[in-house]
Amino acid sequence: MLILLNKPYAVLCQFTDRSTPPRRTLADFIGEKDVYAAGRLDYDSEGLLLLTDDGALAGRLTDPVHKQPKTYLVQVEGLPGSAALASLRRGIVLNDGPTLPAEVEVLVDTPPDLWPRDPPVRFRRSVPEAWLRLTIREGRNRQVRRMTAAVGLPTLRLIRQRVGAYELGSLKPGESRRVAHPATVMQR
Q: How many beta carbons lie within 10 A of that of residue 2, not counting itself?
């Protein structure tokens, strides 16, 4: 079984929370039993999260050896110059080592059909912002945020659109859909 969820902002990528007061978790959106997140999205990130009861499928989706592409919409503070884009495309050296090269595209307009975030991203009239479409083939902790920060473009909003063959599509925040027959995940 595979479930696609549009994880909202400010939701833990687990089913329980022991903090006081408790934060929203996947249990607030997924009623299926015995499914687990195949990969993670940070508390402050949004978008596509895959949940499955199939350990082998989860491994093929998340193990770095398979290099599954993960595509994100990234709202950044600042305007990306050619040097910053070239660095992302070559790969960035982070404190845990170099990243693989990323595919990056500057979007001319705000992505269409984007839902408002609650609370909204801070707005500063004196600081420009831009949207990027960024694809990586790893999944390190807060990797996209660390990569954009390393080139002087702090991330304001991060929305995962795609993991391997699976897309967010028209799912609204908090909505999920079950995939009857999971797509074949190619091994590399």
A: 21
